[in-house]
Amino acid sequence: MAAGNEKLTINLGPVDLGRIDLLVQEGFYANRSDFIRTAIRSQLVAEREPLARSIERHSLDMGVRDITRDELEAARREGRALNISVVGLARIASDVSPDLAQAAIDSLAVLGSLQASAEVKAALADRLR
């Protein structure tokens, strides 16, 4: 599995699974995962416009959002708390302490994956949406 990928588990009926296996057997796809990734990407392309409108409406960051100690310290110095919303991957730097995260982050919404130390995740538990 490539770095940054998340593993998903899905349930399929035997007929759908058999149809996928037939496409794999016939060489259309390398394996079941290849078929599923291709199907998901195709659906996301088909839903591109509604997704774009929703991202804009909710003021979401798209892709990878690195949250650094410098950014959080600046917010704390300025007396403002951050409301961070991400579609994709949010990474809180390893040098961010739980106290700093609590002081500088008012809310954190991640549709995708959050990478942070266990301590920082615990400190932000009441602010995660």
- Quick one: overall form? elongated
The biggest sheet amounts to: 3 strands, parallel
- The residue fraction in helices comes out at 40-55%
The end-to-end distance, rounded to whole angstroms, is 27 Å
Query: Unreliable segments (pLDDT under 50, ≥5 consecutive)?
Result: none
Oligomer: single chain
How much of the polypeptide forms β-strand, as a percent range? 15-25%
Commentary on this structure:
- The chain has a three-stranded parallel β-sheet, covered by helices on one side.
- The chain has helices spanning 14-25, 32-46, 48-57, 69-77, 98-104, 118-123; strands at residues 61-67, 82-92, 105-115.
- The chain is elongated, with a radius of gyration of 19 Å.
- Helix 4 (69-77) packs across helix 5 (98-104).
- Helix content is 46%, strand content 22%.
- The protein has 129 residues and is an alpha/beta fold.
- The chain folds into two domains: 14-46, no CATH class; 58-127, no CATH class.
- The model has no long low-confidence stretch (mean pLDDT 93).
- The longest helix has 15 residues, at 32-46.
Give descriptors for this structure.
single chain; 129 residues; alpha/beta; three-stranded parallel sheet; 3 strands; 46% helix; elongated; CopG family transcriptional regulator; RHH_8; Arc_rbn_hlx_hlx; Ribbon_hlx_hlx
